[in-house]
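User: structure tokens for RNA-directed RNA polymerase, please.
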Amino acid sequence: MIAVSGFPSTASTDAVKSFLEQHTGEGSIYALKIRPFKSGGKRLYAIVQFMKVSHAETILSKPPKSLWYGTSYLTVREMERDIVPKPRTYQHSMENTTLHFGCQISKDKFLGFWKGQNSSVSFGYGLRKIYFFLCVISKEYKLELSYESIWQIELRRPCSTRSKYLLIQSKLQRNKEEIYVTMLDTVIFI
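Assistant: Done. Predicted tokens:
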């Protein structure tokens, strides 16, 4: 976690987040707070917790006086405590994947009804949960699939293509009213 000081009093949380992610990559910030200095003044500082230590190191490794926000010179220092203690970490993740949602209609045929590119997939500790992060019409979503609801996972590679994919099939589940029965098959292209 780091503290970045010197933002103008007009800086918003979203603007500071966008600015820092230009240096560390989109989605690299886990938590962010903006605070005024206790002594007052027209400047603010941001406390930033990144998804990975390497993101913080990217900002900390900038040469002195090289980080500017508009006409404001920024200083950076390391912080000891996290904003969110014990943040959720993922054992494995895949970035820039293509997700296909649909259902299997025969042994070798898959009927897709939605495709999302530039998605990411993360596997929780002990592979007990799989998290899908996707964007639909400029809105971000997180889908969580627990180990108990997975029927099978297969790594496939059709003869006609070079790409590999995971086929994740969930068990049939009924909702509380037992009106709808859904089957979710997720294909992740690697």
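User: Anything notable?

Assistant: The longest helix spans residues 13-24.
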